[in-house]
Amino acid sequence: MKLQPRQQLLELWEAAARTSYRDRQWGWGGRDGSNSIADAEQLLCLMYPAAELPGFRLDTPDETADDVLNALEVLGDSVEIPRLLLRLFSQYLRSYTYEDGRPDFSGGSYFQPAIPGDEITPDQRAIDIVDSYSMSITLMLSMLGFLKVFRQSVRREGIRREIRELETLAGDRLSAAMVGMLRSFSVNAFEPSSPQGEALLRTANQTGAPRRRVLDDFQRRLQEVRAGLRDLSIGSGVVDLDNPNLLFECGWSWSVVKDAPTVETNLQVGQQPKGIAADTPYLYFTVNALVGLVDLWSERTRVLGLLNDDQQKLASALQLRWDLTQAYWRTVATYGKGRWPLEDIPWRTTDGKESDYYSLGVTAMVVQYLARSRAGDVDLNRVAGVLEELAMRARITRRAVADDPPVALHAPGVRVNLHGSDELGPQMIWVVSDFAITLLKRTIWVSNVAQSSRTRERLHNLADQIWQHIQARQFAGGVHRGLWDQPANAFPDIGLQYEQPSWYFTERVVEFLVSLAQASGEAPLRSSQLVEIAGEMLSEAEHLLNREQVLRPALPGQHLRSSVSGVQAALQRARAIMGERPGSAIALISDALLELERQATARENASEAM
């Protein structure tokens, strides 16, 4: 692949610092102004790499890498940067906390009216949204981890007191975000003969099988999910699924669902807001919830002990919903023995909406399952085919023509109606415009679990093409150079040139680069064929080495010649790494065999000369 995640992350950090910190003042907000999500995205552009990648750590001043300090030079040195981050944490946490102490998870300036010209009311802008819950979980865990480690480097009592206060605020916000997630979960049950039921069965039945047979088999495959949903006891999503004839779908709505019960907890979460969102799962918000919740049970969260006992209970309840939701959508997307419903692009939701973006969303849940189950390359190749087709349909790997409808996926983006928002004013929508970078993330996910080098090469080629498209959308000049998103650079028909960067898009680029850097640190793909070849070559090399030592033994008190000694060391190293890196072992063995051949040839020439 042509991507260099460390260098590109450093360049992105330099651009984010240059844009955000001017005249020793941090400027919040980008293209869409400040809100609880946009400011979290801006802060995560720094905090996410620092939390997830050891080489980007900022919480231990004595261990901060030189290239990191060079990239963040505008923010200060290794001591000043952590102190600046403390101030930014404080500003964010206090800005998005109401006077009564309840954390603010509103969508604010990200909300848009469904009809241009309508005026969104202040009450509507203050509505909590699942994206803010999800983003806050990731940001608060990053903050808490940073504070826990940085505290060990601090001796001044004033700073230690500030750290304790921030830990309390961040912990309370994390708890409130988890409660919000529990109250936004939705299970929607319906009759098979309803429009929703007909749409779901039509999606599942890709082979034209008899409807009754598909319905019975589909219900059977969802029995475990149905049983798990019946056991939910806290938050929303508790519905009567005892009737085995009902179909259902589960996931997250866009906000706290209407009539959602409060969650009983000893944690300080403030007054729990009244829900207004339609009690129906949304694909976009479900995928975002699944991606954000994973951080709650990550290795870093466990090792640092970032959750207390009460938070662990909420995390367990959310993990159950995560497992059930992922299992449901994976079952639907891969149902049947012929073509998968996932491969029937575009995906059609139960309310009759169709979009390539929905196909991309369902792909995420399939990929998560394939990664956990270490699926074979037959299934992974099918997913790779879906990703390749989506890239073409979205005019990422194909040239767009004049007035090409797929360009709307990127600008202005996919419109998501927020049903229930009209209780407080005009109907609102949520605009999603991260198709390209989300497609790239899915491509890398699949390549990371592929066992076949051919499949990986196929996906890496696709990733390079998508990355080339995304790079073209960077700001090319000015103070914002190196940030995103300028879609007119890739699609001339768009015409509109933005003056401010989009933290929404830029933060997702950061997530992708971090995941790529993490994958780069893992062991390379191991081929069983190469392991077998390496073993055969090693046997031959060791036999030849033994013969060389017998034919030319060292004199008493004399070491083996350096060349033969080097061969011996190379073969020992090859044996040690052969199981994990057979290609590298073969290279060492090949060099050793060449040296042994030189020794044999020299000996034969010497014998002939005599």
Can you walk me through this structure?
With 610 residues, the protein is mainly α. 55% of the residues lie in helices and 5% in strands. It has helices spanning 5-20, 36-52, 66-71, 80-95, 122-125, 130-150, 157-184, 195-204, 211-221, 223-230, 283-293, 299-304, 309-333, 356-373, 377-393, 435-449, 453-472, 503-520, 528-551, 562-577, 582-609, and strands at residues 21-22, 25-26, 112-113, 185-190, 247-252, 347-348, 354-355, 414-417, 428-432. The strands form 4 sheets. It has a 3-stranded antiparallel β-sheet with strand order 3-9-8, with no helix packed on it. Strands 1-2 form a two-stranded antiparallel sheet. A two-stranded antiparallel sheet has the order 4-5. Helix 14 packs antiparallel against helix 15. The model is unreliable at 554-560 (pLDDT under 50).
Helical element count? 21
Radius of gyration using CA atoms only = 28 Å
| Oligomer class | single chain
Strand content: 5-15%
Largest sheet: 3 strands, antiparallel
Low-confidence stretches: 554-560
Span between termini:
56 Å
Q: How many strand elements?
A: 9
Mean pLDDT, to the nearest integer, reads 90
Sketch the topology as an H/E string, one letter per element.
HEEHHHEHHHEHHHEHHHEEHHEEHHHHHH
Lateral strand order in the biggest sheet: 3-9-8
Shape: globular
Which percent bin holds the helix content? 40-55%
InterPro entries: SCO2524-like
Protein name: SCO2524 family protein
